[in-house]
Amino acid sequence: MTNLDLTSEICVIGSGAGGGLAAGYLAEAGHEVLLLEEGVQVKASQMTQREEQMLPLLYRDGGKQFSADGGVAVLQGRALGGSTVVNMADVVPVPGGVLAHWAQVYGVDRFTPQQWAKAAGIAAQAIGANRIQSHELNRNAQLLLEGGRALGIAGDVFEHNRVGCVGSGYCLIGCAYDAKKSTALTWIPRGVATGNLRVKTGARVSRLPHKNGRVRAVEGQLLEGHKVVGRFRVKADRIILAAGAIHSPLILQASLLGGPVVGKNLSLQPQAPVSARFPETVRMFRGIPQAAYLHGRETCTPEQGLGGFRIESVSATPGMAAVNGVGWGPELLEVFRDYTHMGAALCLVPDAPMGQVRRKGFRPVIDYPFSPSWLERLREAMDTCARVFLASGAEQVYLPVVGFPVVESTTDLEALKNWPLAPASLSLISSHPQGTCRMGVDPQTSVVDLGFGLHGVDNLQILDASVFPSTASSHTMLPVMQAALLGLGAV
Ligand SMILES: Cc1cc2nc3c(=O)[nH]c(=O)nc-3n(C[C@H](O)[C@H](O)[C@H](O)COP(=O)(O)OP(=O)(O)OC[C@H]3O[C@@H](n4cnc5c(N)ncnc54)[C@H](O)[C@@H]3O)c2cc1C
Ligand code: SF4
Fold it and tell me: Of 298, 325, 328, 352, most Cβ neighbours within 10 A?
């Protein structure tokens, strides 16, 4: 067993949207930074485009991290670059209405809309954000927009952080072309190039020993794959925790830090995949996998924050599609026999903070109850999505609801009105967990203060998706980067 003792001015834990940015930014600002990441670095040449190889290498639990009742697959990256390596690269900032909601309901009013906008600009430029061009839309995206137009539902294309994309369609299992500009290709190399940033992968932080309101060290295990091969201890003046919304609260809980609500107020923003079989060839698995969306039913108010739902074109690699609700048993076989004719979309239904993360050893237990009002919005979203696909020519539509018959006409959707929706009967995905170290002024109801500092501790900031008081946006990469830049005082 190796025992490693390290020192650094600043220690950053986690290398995703928040941690990768913080490490690069601080190194460029002249600070000595050590970045600790549990996962490994996977270079483009190692991205084999094979699910059985890439899922275990790039994802938390190989992509099989679920909520405790099995109702939601909680997807997270676990590699240098974190979830930005496996994400769909859509670039969506925090909407103004959400900022008003945070100020009105949670007292998070320190930042101006102008500051958030400036942070969005800096982050977007760093990751090469640009608008997807209409000739880049695959047939799946076109069909969604066509169906939306037929029903009078407004749609648009995303901005994304792909540069030089060849449209292979493999985004979810890592880009073999270095086209997706994750933090592993942007902020982290920028920091390394200064000579101020050291990166240690295979370093899983387990505890933050502390005394008199200061974190004294960062302790954890050295890993080879999932095997523990040693231990480390880092002494640093300043700690930035950015292990994501599931693991940042876990590390705090293990360290007896974070106060009474650490791990609570979890938003999963679950998404429901709806698929459809078309008479024409669609080949949704080629081209940019998530390029267009219908936002006609989204809402955002200062009282409620994000609400309603949006529908996004999507394609998954076959294994992920099979696990996440394209169908069951003989129906699933049918879907795969005709996979080139299949299209799909995600119903993205923002939630209120409802869940929590608890610790069982080193592992999180994710409790996530569904509220009746959220389930009703999900029902409406799936109904709308099915109608959109039927309007764009689908012959069959498959809902991610166990036992619900294949939909062949709008009449078949009548049954959805009273169909019981419960966690065990749904197949849902979360790619945007957030809120478990919520920002606020009161240590009894929040974990970090308005400067992103842990209440009562003077040398620990949290800069990741866990700090949002409620769902930040329909997508969380850019919002996390915006927040991190605010936390670092960059704007
Ligand atoms: C499949 C998928 C698709 C997505 N699509 C989009 C999209 O199109 N657009 C968008 O805006 N957002 C998308 N997201 C969400 C977005 O990528 C995340 O919200 C964002 O990356 C979160 O940033 P973070 O810093 O909080 O955490 P992460 O980026 O998840 O990074 C956390 C890092 O911390 C590491 N870590 C965890 N525990 C420890 C520990 N104990 N010790 C050391 N390291 C640790 C993890 O391995 C990980 O690398 C998607 C996410 C996924 C998973
Ligand atoms: S679609 Fe583009 S960004 Fe995604 S994996 Fe292929 S080349 Fe990379």
Answer: 325
